[in-house]
Amino acid sequence: MFEVIKQEGRARRGVFTCPHGTAQTPVFMNVGTQGAIKGAVSAHDLKDIGCQIELSNTYHLHLRPGDKVVKELGGLHKFMDWNGPMLTDSGGFQVFSLASLRKIKEEGVHFSSHIDGRKIFMGPEESMQIQSNLGSDIAMAFDECIENPAPREYVERSIARTTRWLERCVIEHKRLNELPDCVNPGQMLFGINQGGTYADLRVQHMEDIAKLDCDGYAIGGLAVGEPTQVMYDIIDAVEPHMPKEKPRYLMGVGTPSNIIEAVARGVDFFDCVMPARNARHGKLYTWKGTINIKNEKYKLDTRPIDETCTCPACQHFSRAYLRHLVTAGEMLAMRLAVLHNLHFYNELMQRIRDSLDNGTFEEFRATYSGMLDRPCQEG
Fold it and tell me: Is the pLDDT reported for residue 271 higher than 90?
């Protein structure tokens, strides 16, 4: 399932195998929340720009079109015509960030849909059932995403409940995989580490959930407003207690520099809506830093976004044209910008993997960590 083939310091170069194929790690998972990338990007486009793992959202697909509908249509891979590895998150983050009037109890969470206000219940068993219906290769355990900062006493109670929820997820996940009509009997289950910004609670929780022998482990509840160094400190605290033979996933992170620094700390999997969201607002990544394509100085600029880039936007169109599309409000602007940023992130991961293969990761880190997040100084 997962093999670490090389290390440089704590940075790991690996290979992940699942029912729908193989992914080289470290890997960035492109986020297709509702079975599509925001910005008119399809599963076929993802293949063209080097995506290895697609990520979709349990909460949103449960509400629309309904996970039972997706199962009846053959599962999410068939529904969106994606034939590669796929991860579905548990729905927990959306329940706690989008849903209104939520009430957390031991059995799960009662909440109101952010779409139409209808009453919904989701607990560990329901999350596993939804993800089983979707047929993803990796299902995430149902957890509580704790706000930062949060009182220590609350965090202690929350992580204890999240551990009990994980125990229930493990039992239900095994039961579902053994059903004769299971969409993906090889579906894996990843547990999620929580604990807010309390390093000792993070370590305690990681040690507790490691005993449950999940297929992989994620660090959740970071990049939600805490200082960046605090995030790095938490990873440093947790990583030694994560099983060495299992993939490690840092949820919802982040900028190119965040990714490089987390790889240096032993993380294998990443996802974030940031590259697509920034693209839709005109912030584009290059190997010399970021640019805001809406700026007046690009009005007559005939260069591509990045002269070294092989994405569809850079291969065919100029900065001037893309700026025109953005200022004119054309939908094509979003599509080209999103394709570029996702291609950049996928290429970033390829360059990280290449540097690990070549034993030059620390040189790569010294050159690009920090620079890629800053505004481009050239033109």
Answer: yes
74: region left, alpha or beta (phi > 0 left; psi from -120 to 50 alpha): left
Q: How far is it, in rounded angstroms, from Cα 377 to Cα 379?
A: 6
Band of residue 379 on the pLDDT scale cut at 50, 70, 90: low
pLDDT of residue 293: 98
Where, residue-wise, is CATH 3.20.20.105 in the chain? 2-272
CA distance 213 to 368: 36
CA contacts within 13 A on the Cβ side of 13: 18
Q: What is 2-272's CATH number?
A: 3.20.20.105
What pLDDT does residue 80 have?
98
The band of 224, judged by pLDDT with boundaries at 50, 70 and 90, is confident
Neighbour tally for 310: CB within 10 Å: 12
| Residues 6 or more apart in contact with residue 1 via CB below 8 angstroms | 16, 17, 18, 188, 215
| pLDDT tens profile 152-178 | 999 999 999 999 999 999 999 999 999
How high does pLDDT run on average in the chain?
96
Q: Which amino acid does the sequence have at 150?
A: A
CB-based contact 141:191 (threshold 8 Å): yes
**Structure tokens that stand for 261 in this block:** 């620094």
Q: Which run of H or E residues covers position 231? A: helix 228-238
Indicate the pairing of strand 269-271 with strand 248-250: parallel
**Active-site residues: which are they?**
89, 271
Q: 166 near 124, Cβ under 8 Å?
A: yes
> Which pTM was predicted?
0.97
The tens digit of pLDDT for each residue in 62-120 reads: 999 999 999 999 999 999 999 999 999 988 788 777 767 788 999 999 988 888 989 99
The CA–CA distances, whole Å, from 113 to 2, 86, 118 equal 37, 25, 5
